[in-house]
Specification:
By secondary structure, the protein is mainly alpha-helical. Helix content is 67%, strand content 0%. The chain is globular, with a radius of gyration of 27 Å.
């Protein structure tokens, strides 16, 4: 019996503390920096290899692009360098033809034509150079599109980022939906007003600071699309850090969880509205298929089908495919199906342990995918966090400024506005010491920030790597939160037997 308890405790520790995500991230960082040191590109080649090639189904021309990627992998880190490698081969044929033509013309040339030849030849070479550069640019562009995961190949990157992450966002959507049910954190507008305004501050503060920095450094054309990256809050890591600082059961924990859930909802809207797939024109008519999936889900519900598999495998797949074809990120495809699943009529609280005793379809969906989602997040970290430390650049500092400074300032400012101007009250047991500290904890962007980094900058390269380093660096908010909490005299709260204790449900 003791061995079984020990085994269960180990499993709970592994799955309850995001260790898979942390491990995947550390391995990816190590892998990327070894690649950089050895001048190889094995990580990108591995995760972007088209798996259809294993069964001879890769599209025509795939091997050519794959070979070009392996040989000139600097496309991701130095596009100009890659172009430089290709130019000699591209020019060799025109030069050979020019030499043959020169020998043929030499026997018939006159002094006048001979003197004109160098000028004409230079012009021809310039035109040939331009043509060859255009010719070289096309396959590089195709290779980058294929590399981006998008809809150009069945790569591990595509499977993890676009397919499996739909489960993660589905569970996030489930928490948002349940929070709006009676008893939920968002069901009472007046009670939720202060955290919701704080959420708005946690979105607008980082975004405005990021945009201001972009204009300050005159990098709008390069980095402007990344304004939403620092808006994200990693609910699991911020929750873990807040528990260390505030202690289990402190009202600041519930405030932070509500803020993070609302932030997730805002993030879903931002992803869908502002980051369509650039490789596919937005085709809203495809969303009719998602609407049909929702309608079919209601039919299943009327038929008293309680297994969540009915809803995931038929309406869920329909909605996911609709998002894929519509140009909206397919990882959001399960979200519209979440409210359709049979669910409880009340909410027991965000990540409440009492929900483990509920067996409605929606809760069964979360219970089943709770641990697999942790593994998925580990794979996500392994595929997304492969960034060399040398990638630190302007984008890194802009993302960090938004998360580490813009988050706490925005959250504190709008909470102050709600309190002093709108006369809304802070939750009992909270002061501005707690607001500032939980604002620092909300600065841990990580998972969603990494996801938005790839959505904002689809083409791998120095810019994408630099903003990803900012997302990874937001782990520093954990140290800042602990230091600020101690400096402000906050000590961990010890709950009494009467106080409810919320436990993390691993995202």
């Amino acid at each position: 019996m003791s061995h079984e308890k020990s085994s269960n405790g180990l499993i709970q520790f592994l799955f309850g503390n995001s260790l898979f995500l942390i491990s995947g991230t550390v391995i990816a960082l190590t892998w990327a920096n070894l690649d950089a040191a050895w001048g190889t590109h094995t990580h990108k080649a591995f995760f972007n290899y088209d798996l259809r090639a294993l069964v001879g189904m890769a599209p025509e021309g795939h091997d050519e692009h794959a070979g070009d990627h392996e040989e000139h992998g600097a496309t991701e880190h130095d596009e100009s360098g890659a172009a430089g490698h290709d130019e000699p081969a591209a020019h060799s044929e025109p030069e050979a033809e020019g030499a043959d033509q020169g020998e043929a013309d030499a026997s018939t040339s006159t002094p006048e034509t001979a003197s004109a030849t160098p000028t004409e030849t230079g012009a021809d070479n310039a035109a040939g150079s331009t043509d060859s550069e255009v010719a070289n640019a096309a396959p590089q562009t195709e290779a980058k599109e294929d590399h981006g995961g998008g809809h150009h190949g069945l790569s591990l990157y595509f499977i993890i980022n676009d397919v499996l992450m739909a489960i993660f966002f589905g569970i996030a959507g489930k928490e948002v939906w349940e929070s709006m049910l009676p008893g939920g954190a968002l069901s009472n507008p007046r009670k939720a007003a202060v955290p919701l305004l704080a959420t708005a501050g946690g979105v607008f503060g980082p975004a405005l600071l990021y945009v201001a920095g972009v204009f300050m450094f005159s990098t709008w054309g390069e980095l402007g699309k990344g304004w939403a990256i620092p808006c994200a809050t990693d609910i699991a890591f911020s929750y873990l850090v807040a528990r260390i600082v505030f202690g289990v059961g402190h009202p600041a924990i519930a405030f932070l969880l509500l803020l993070a859930i609302a932030d997730d909802a805002a993030g879903l809207v931002i992803l869908a509205a502002f980051y369509p797939d650039p490789n596919i024109p937005v085709q809203p008519l495809w969303l009719l298929l998602s609407a049909a999936g929702i309608g079919l889900g209601f039919v299943f519900r009327g038929m008293k089908l309680h297994s969540f598999w009915w809803y995931v495998l038929i309406p869920g797949v329909m909605s996911w495919y609709a998002f894929l074809q519509a140009g909206i990120h397919p990882a959001l495809g399960l979200v519209p199906i979440i409210p359709v699943m049979p669910h409880a009529h009340t909410d027991l609280g965000i990540f409440a342990t009492k929900e483990l005793g509920r067996h409605d379809t929606l809760n069964e969906f979360e219970h089943f995918f709770k641990n697999p989602t942790e593994v998925i997040l580990g794979l996500f970290g392994l595929s997304q966090a492969a960034v060399a430390f040398s990638a630190v650049d302007t984008g890194t500092w802009l993302v960090l400024a938004g998360l580490l400074l813009g988050k706490p300032v925005g959250i504190t400012f709008l909470t102050l506005f709600a309190d002093k101007v709108l006369k809304l009250q802070l939750p009992e047991g909270m002061s501005y010491r707690h607001v500032v500290t939980l604002g620092c904890a909300a600065g841990i962007g990580f998972t969603v920030a990494l996801f938005v980094s790839s959505a904002a900058f689809r083409d791998p390269g120095p810019i994408q790597d630099s903003v990803k380093m900012g997302a990874l660096g937001s782990f520093g908010a954990a140290i800042i939160t602990i230091v600020v909490g101690r400096a402000l005299g906050i000590r961990p709260h010890k709950p009494t037997d009467e106080e409810p204790v919320a436990e993390s449900a691993a995202h």
